[in-house]
Write a structure and sequence with these properties.
about 250 residues, mainly alpha, two-stranded parallel sheet, 13 helices, 2 strands, about 55% helix
């Protein structure tokens, strides 16, 4: 890994310099020059409310009924809830490692889908066959065990599940690897590469974050979360808009 990442050229650009961003070609690796210290997820929209409703409305309420839910909760409430769900997921994973309980495995899966927001709803919807048909325990269990061992190829296992793409597959890998392997979604791919995410790009994405982590002495998950949080800012939205035109 070290020999490989040494050949990556990281272009770090001041996000205020539009001309430099505009000069980036499609697929060129570039990162915004921002502080890398925002580990906790800090969204600007209430992304999990709809996800919770989908879960409740499709016969899966037993998996989330222990959450103290506030349907009128604001952004502050949501970000606190995201942190709680994240902590709960990691605790449940530790219990599952000892028990390999099937119902607990389903609950972890649903908690991760909830944490990821409503864009992951398709696997839960009745019109697509419903969760019980779309979810395959053996496939998910195998993928999770691979992630526990920090195996990147676990991504290929997660996407064997119906309606699970690279974004949510990497969210599951993120938690099951104890946050060692970073999430890779459309927002992050558009910022770093100016393109939509694809599973074949994950190794490159990991190499880029690894190299930056070595240079900045920062954990990969901190880098991923910092960039993701920054994407919601004015500068972040502007960067994405410019890179999207070049993609």
């Amino acid at each position: 890994m070290q020999e490989k990442i040494n050949h990556i050229k990281l272009k770090i650009i001041d996000p205020k310099k539009n001309k430099e961003i505009e000069q980036l070609i499609a697929h060129e690796v570039a990162l915004p020059d921002i502080e890398l210290n925002d580990y906790d997820l800090n969204r600007k929209k209430t992304t999990i409310k709809q996800a919770f409703t989908v879960i409740k409305d499709h016969g899966l309420e037993k998996y989330v009924n222990d959450l103290e839910w506030n349907k009128d909760g604001n952004i502050t409430w949501q970000n606190e809830m995201l942190r709680k769900i994240s902590d709960d997921i990691l605790k449940m994973i530790e219990i599952w490692k000892k028990t390999e309980d099937s119902e607990l495995l389903k609950k972890i899966f649903i908690y991760i889908q909830l944490w990821g927001g409503n864009s992951g709803r398709n696997i839960l919807l009745r019109k697509n066959g419903g969760f019980q048909k779309n979810y395959t325990e053996l496939v998910y269990k195998n993928a999770c065990k691979m992630s526990i061992n920090k195996e990147i190829d676990s991504l290929n296992e997660y996407i064997k599940l119906k309606y699970i793409g690279i974004s949510f597959a990497s969210k599951h890998m993120f938690f099951w690897s104890n946050k060692s392997l970073p999430i890779f979604d459309k927002i992050l791919s558009s910022i770093l590469f100016g393109r939509n995410p694809n599973i074949k790009y994950y190794n490159q994405y990991l190499d880029v974050l690894t190299k930056l982590g070595v240079e900045k002495n920062v954990n990969l998950s901190v880098i991923e979360r910092s960039i993701f949080n920054w994407a919601d800012t004015v500068d972040g939205k502007n960067w994405i808009a410019i890179r999207s035109k070049r993609g």
